Amino acid sequence: MSSKQHQVETEQAAEQEPLTVETDTAAADEGVAQPDAAYVAELEQKLADAEATVQTEKENALRALAEMENIRRRAAQDVEKAQKFALEKFASELLPVIDSLERALEHTDKEQEAFKAVCEGVELTLKSLLGTVEKFGVVAIDPKGQPFDPNKHQAMSMVESTEVAPNSVLAVMMKGYELNGRVLRPAMVMVAKGPAIDTQA
């Protein structure tokens, strides 16, 4: 065999080898690139389900956080109210004592020597008691001359009057009291009404 012939055969073999390699690579690519369509659809469905689950759990977590924040806020409000109005029952029980001391002072003749010392003692006791309850947020409602407020006043009677505007408090029969803005007892009042109109004139 001549060297020329050997050279031609070698070149032909070299040309044919890459074809074989390319064909093998293409066949390998076809095997990997052609997965089963049903398998792909199944994976896509699983991915969609997983994404939906994640979204649902995110929404649930946000709802739970919002609910916890609401509970925390309500608990703080309840604690604040409990602290503010813990004395409500006790303060309500003290009101008749205050009323009794005030009535005692109103109906005692302070000019008589025998009662002067007693009146001074009752006045000091009343002043001390009122100062103490005021420290804890109990304040008197004494609305004489003010417009009638059904939230804070209880009308005991209505009287024709030209002294004050109609629907104003003419007289206070018994003072009311509030605890931190909440009515413990409404003021018992006499309310003014305008004079009756004579329809026969």
Report on the architecture of this protein.
A 3-stranded antiparallel sheet has the order 1-4-5. It has 2 domains: 36-85; 87-193, Head domain of nucleotide exchange factor GrpE (Nucleotide Exchange Factor Grpe, Chain A, domain 2), CATH 2.30.22.10. It is 61% helix and 16% strand. The protein is elongated, with a radius of gyration of 48 Å. The protein is built from 4 helices and 6 strands. α3 packs antiparallel against α4 (113-135). It is an alpha+beta fold. The longest helix is centred in the first third of the chain and has 49 residues, at 37-85.
What is the strand and helix layout of this fold?
Layout: H1 3-33, H2 37-85, H3 88-106, H4 113-135, E1 138-141, E2 153-160, E3 169-174, E4 176-179, E5 182-185, E6 187-193
Helix pairs in contact: 3-4
GO molecular function, one term: protein-folding chaperone binding
Family: Belongs to the GrpE family.
Region (Disordered): 1-32
Order of strands in the sheet with the most strands? 1-4-5
- Uncertain runs with pLDDT below 50, 5 residues or more? none
Please write the string of helix (H) and strand (E) elements: HHHHEEEEEE
Provide the CATH top-level class of the largest domain: Mainly Beta
Q: What percent of the residues sit in helical stretches (DSSP H or I)?
A: 55-70%
What's the name of the CATH homologous superfamily of the largest domain? Head domain of nucleotide exchange factor GrpE
CATH architecture of the largest domain: Roll
Tell me the CATH topology of the largest domain.
Nucleotide Exchange Factor Grpe, Chain A, domain 2
Termini, distance in Å? 154 Å
Radius of gyration: 48 Å
Kindly state the number of beta strands.
6
Number of helices: 4
Family: Belongs to the GrpE family.
GO molecular function: adenyl-nucleotide exchange factor activity; protein homodimerization activity; protein-folding chaperone binding; unfolded protein binding
Subcellular location: Cytoplasm
Pfam families: GrpE
